[in-house]
Amino acid sequence: MKQNMRVLALPALAAFVTLFPFSAPAQPHYLPPSGDNQRASVTQQVGPVTVSISYGSPRVVLKGNDRRGKIWGALVPYGLTALDFNDCKSCPWRAGANEGTVFTVSDEVKIQGKSLPAGSYGLFAIAGADEWTFIFSKNATSWGAYWYDPGEDVLRVTAKPAKSDYHEWLTYDFIEREPAKATVALKWEELQVPFTIAVDDVPARWVARMRDELRGYTGFSWENWQRAADYCLQNKINLPQALDWAQRATGPNFGGAGQVLAQTTLARALAANGKEDDAAKVWEKAVNLPGATPIQIHMVGRSLQAEGKVQQALSIFQTNAKRFPDQWPVNVGLMRGYAGVGDAKKALGAARLALKQAPDDLNRKNIEGAIAKLEKGDTKIN
Length: 382
Description:
By secondary structure, the protein is of the alpha+beta class. The protein has helices at 2-14, 202-213, 222-235, 239-249, 260-272, 276-287, 294-306, 310-323, 330-340, 344-357, 361-374, and strands at residues 38-46, 49-57, 61-62, 65-66, 101-105, 109-111, 114-116, 119-126, 132-137, 153-159, 162-178, 181-198.
């Protein structure tokens, strides 16, 4: 008889699942979630750091009971709450339903500008009409907030609630994303509460990860050494090690010695470390490799132009024209090379030859646009 009473009581209690637990034993995982508050998760990369949030996702309309307008300040009370379990007198909201909300970061981040070390945390919230407080607790395994202990707080930050489009199910959504920063928002009903997650020194962290990975299986490929060196050169960091990595890419062990890309990365690394004479020799070697293609040599010239070395770039484009006359995109390179040094007349002549060789409509239109500018003496072509 007692068992039947417990079964009958479940539907009535389900409406309160976002705040109160059952007195029944823990529910097996093979059964549907209590109150249909299904578990959800979201994961986002912020630089090299992985951020994930796992939470119970309640809905606004529950078994015909429309709770719209009754969520904030009612179902989810403002401030701290005395819960009828475990003698918890001043407890925050679990920031979700059923089991606790778990916030995990693979490396140190800054939440609203404050540092949070790598790890998994119980995420709690103190809701308010004008301001919220998010709490990151070292206790990430408790059910709900019934064992909440402020002594286990690792970090507290404040956030401002704002109006949102309607969300039937409670959702955590990354609403803004940048390479080193993201904004995640708790959204439910017509409210959202965003907070920022930032990563300091993103390039340095990527380099640290590359350094570790190159000691493993990835270190047996010249491409990976070259990519690591190229990343440092692009970001102008770790330049001595960029040179070391580029030298490894072109060394005798991994097959990069005969690769144009590996050799040009080495040349750039030498130049970035003040070894211009050595760099010039490697540039010359790169464009004269037996296996070099006109496209590869063209890209060498383009990379030099991107670094502002326009005269050297023109020399590369001219070398390409000698090795591969009348091949695509040799004349395109000459067009760009002469334009780069301000010679509109020679650039126009190369452009007209390139137009006849254009392999598709997109390249043809681009060259036609360049010709229109060059005919007016404008050498600033894309």
